[in-house]
Amino acid sequence: MSSxxxxxxxxxxxxxxxxxxxxxxxxxxxxVVYQIYPRSFADSNGDGVGDIPGITARVDHLADLGVDVxxxxxxxxxxxxxxxxxxxxxxxxxxxxxSLADLDALIEAxxxxxxxxxxxxxxxxxxxxxxxxxxxxxxxxxKRDWYWWRPARKGFTAGTEGAEPTNWASFFSGSxxxxxxxxxxxxxxxxxxxxxxxxWENPEVRQAxxxxxxxxVERGVDGFRMDVINLISKQPELRDAxxxxxxxxxxxxxxxxxxxxxxxxxxxxxxxVGLDARQLLxxxxxxxxxxxxxxRVTDPANGELNMVFTFEHVGLxxxxxxxxxxxxxxxxxxxxxxxxxWQEGLADVGWNSLYWDNHDQPRAVSRFGDDSPRHRVNSAxxxxxxxxxxxxxxxxxxxxxxxxxxxxxxxISAYRDIESVNYYAEATSLGLAPEQVLGSxxxxxxxxxxxxxxxxxxxxxxxxxxxxWLPVNPNYVVVNAAAAVADPGSTFHHLRRLxxxxxxxxxxxxxxxxxxxxxxxxxxxxxxxxxDQVLVVVANCSSRPAVVxxxxxxxxxxxQLLLSTHEGGTTAELAPWESRVHLIG
Length: 585
Ligand code: ISL
Description:
Layout: H1 4-7, E1 33-36, H2 52-56, H3 59-65, E2 69-72, E3 76-77, E4 89-93, H4 100-112, E5 116-121, H5 131-136, E6 149-150, E7 177-180, E8 185-188, H6 203-219, E9 223-226, H7 253-256, H8 262-273, E10 281-285, H9 291-298, E11 307-309, H10 332-345, E12 353-354, H11 364-367, H12 376-389, E13 393-397, H13 418-429, H14 434-444, H15 481-486, H16 491-504, H17 506-510, E14 512-516, E15 523-530, E16 533-540, E17 546-547, E18 560-564, E19 573-574, E20 579-584
Parallel strand pairs: 1-2, 1-13, 2-5, 5-9, 9-10, 10-11, 12-13
Antiparallel strand pairs: 3-4, 6-8, 7-8, 14-15, 15-16, 16-20, 17-19, 18-20
The chain binds 6-O-alpha-D-glucopyranosyl-D-fructose.
Residues 82, 85, 122, 171, 191, 227-228, 285, 287, 324, 359-360, 419, 446 line the site of 6-O-alpha-D-glucopyranosyl-D-fructose.
């Protein structure tokens, strides 16, 4: 294993020279990131699964939209138990997606258009088919301690009910422990049993990860999106969480998330890979992060990460204390106030990431907007306006620029996601009615976000020449990229304009944020202020007309109208899902 110090170049290496791109200090603050879930983006070879050459063939779509960065969900070698978030070789590409040469070609195609590439970094766990884990299965191996192996609970026979070392539930249903008959011990897997957790307490694990990261940076990548990075430090005692009646296993976030060494590990990683020194974009996925923790992690003085993904705003439409499947009505005031709290908390120190959806979340327009034919386009536009008007780096998930919607599976056999499939089996075995479970899946399943990108109105939406791995949403005939690009009034062009504004207006990047009308049930209004410029954003986030109470937003008479969903009108009375952005000064 080469040490990180040895493998860190002082400047662009000659071998990768064609693939390097300039990264100015703080460049990611005025950037917009576009997430690609490769399995569902574009299929070049007709096997029904998206691939890297498929992406390369579509880079002009991204350049036309104007995004600065692509975040590529995992393309590494993987048995695909969790669609690539179970990695068996960090340094190779899965044949499903292509080859290392294909990735090099993609980097070149993106860089040639001024677009940077951020890779997904999944290092809380590997696949059980990773060579490290294969070795670790042997209790005598030097890598035994690279994972969390534990004997059965005291007084229990290994492999029998209740013998799991702790009562922790996996994110994907059932126990977080898997019994290994060969050695008579259990290993920890917070996700599927094919995703064993790495033991970050072991310094060899950490050095191996940093060395691998360094090799990707040398290859030309511009940063990392770090999967569940706040789970790498756990309470090392691995103890039971407080029991919950009626449940064999409990979601033990206090035990396995945000552990005592999290920031130490992040600082060590930053130094070993030169994350800050090389101006790489770093964003940590941190379910269960508080504003306070996010402020520390994104404080540049601490040398950890640029930004984190909060989960608070995507948990507001679930029942208190419930899981993601226990769906509740979303309150607009709570949503606005939550984002505002993050804005205020990170106003002076740190930086926010801004997202409505991703490959794990339902489609934004179906969840926060109104995906009926009447309101789909305007609600998608207005949601984009509100998102991009906050202070932070916006993330656009593939298809969001087209206003793609949730899918409509009626049968469990249509679902592919391990989380949905396991949840259905567990919930129905516990006695929940199948219709109720299917109702939750229809609203919340991750497969909603994973249907193929709709490129045009040809067969399979132009995604593949073959049979897609997940059915195309039937609305592709209307909702597709070709139609959106051809229509100047589309969501695509609205988003393109928002991205252009970010690139030209410092007030949109740096301006101080203020939420107006925090309790209003329909209107989302805010200002951004920098020097003598004030950006005024007023949005009706409902499918009914709305009246802006007199005197509650700055007077925009004479101000420049930068962007709006509707022609004409005034800021006093808004049509359903109408939004307007004015610049004063
Ligand atoms: O998807 C979720 C909502 O139910 C989360 O629980 C999700 O599993 C969690 O946010 C972690 O997500 C990340 O790590 C997982 C992977 O399945 C997700 O796709 C990834 O984004 C394990 O690697």
